[in-house]
Amino acid sequence: MAQELKVGIIGGGYAGMAAAVELADRGIPVTVFESAKQLGGRARGVRTPHPVLHDKKRFPPSIQLSPEGGKGNRPLPGDTLILDNGQHLLLGCYRETLRLIEKVGGDISQDFMRLPLQLDLHGQFSLKAPRLPAPFHLLAGLLQAQGLTWHERMKAVRFMLALRGMGFRLSSDMTVSALLERYGQDADLTFKLWEPLCIAALNTPIHKASAQVLLNVLRDSLNRSRADSDMLLPRLDFTALFPQRAAAYVEQRGGMICLSCGIDSIDYRTGNLELAVAGTTHTFSHVICATSPFAAAKLLRPVPALESTVHMIDKLEHQPIYTIYLQYPEHIMLSHAMIGLHQRFCQWLFDKGQIAGQHGLIAAVISAEGIHQELSQEELAQKAITELREEFAIDAAPQWFKVIAEKRATFCCVPDLPRPAQQTALPNLLLAGDYTAGDYPATLEGAVLSGLQCARLLAKTTPT
């Protein structure tokens, strides 16, 4: 059967490359088409001119990015700097993503800074889970949390025990804010603990976010093994971490990776699928569409049989993520590799010196919708500079800054959201991506799981 399948994969992000690796492992030939010059999709390394080494009139300090990717985190020889298009965080429970990284040649102990569960909102709240079996590590961490009253700590513990007692399943979905209100989680507890967790996990405000999807994340990260709640901060850029290695793995097994090859159309002909690329046509027995939802809807819209799938994609709302990179003198560092801010514009700060050896480089992240979207990128950078000065007494001016805005970084994860299945109405066309049907919000693990599901469905299919 494997020899009869010929699979085209549209999109070289984490979903598409996960599918490619799984199929390559099964001896099924694959061709991956990626429209950009680098792999990774919405989790990619970005190669950009180094601001210090270029004329600032030609390369302004604030950019809206979609440039080339690169192979590492540090400045490349000459005039190029590698940054991620966003600061993604992996959890220990992301087992399939971590498994695939190792399969294609990664080393988890070297590729990540691994931290036990800890939430720090500078000067306001601190939770550090001790090395106890799950879920006792979290319960003990809550009981010892700084910045909460004893009454608030007990409320949080009772809430977690109630969720565990119901198996992290709700009889009907609701917003996170409604769930918190039902279980008596007051405003201060919400602002310091549950809201930052929800924003970090779902990239959706609590008044809109699905409580059930948040519970799915809490179930897998906090209730099984203590290591599942570990936080893994990548030392490599996100293209180098997995997609680039996956490409080499696939090519070594007879597959092809085609960069700067955007698909113009999909056509169903005599049981096969034809992909039009820059005036040429490629025929495949099966196709996995692993692009962003916006790009997927554009490709699938002309196919009448896929009307319901396209309608479902069109109904998705999206949430942004802004990342502000600030290059300070190399001696500048934060008290922790990752630290949150309480009721500030910047929600999370990442010290890239501690994480990846990029000394003095601070990445400030603003997730989900908010008033920050009304500001220019220069104004956002100034807000971040001011907050770093006020919170950490960093009086030095940054040498440069860059703002990366992903306007449609994730889907808006609302209650009871219909999400398209991996198997479409066409038996030989499948859909992969973090927005497709699954337990998780828009995460790397959700993307990887969708790609693996597509590959496994194809491996069981006999072409017509």
TrEMBL record:
UniProt-listed Gene3D superfamilies: FAD/NAD(P)-binding domain
Residue span, Amine oxidase domain: 15-457
Disordered, as annotated region: 44-75
Cross-referenced SUPFAM superfamilies: FAD/NAD(P)-binding domain
Gene Ontology molecular function terms on file: oxidoreductase activity
Domain of life: Bacteria
Transmembrane segment boundaries: none
Pfam families per record: Amino_oxidase
Protein's recorded name: Squalene-associated FAD-dependent desaturase
Gene source species: Sideroxydans lithotrophicus (strain ES-1)
Lineage: Bacteria, Pseudomonadati, Pseudomonadota, Betaproteobacteria, Nitrosomonadales
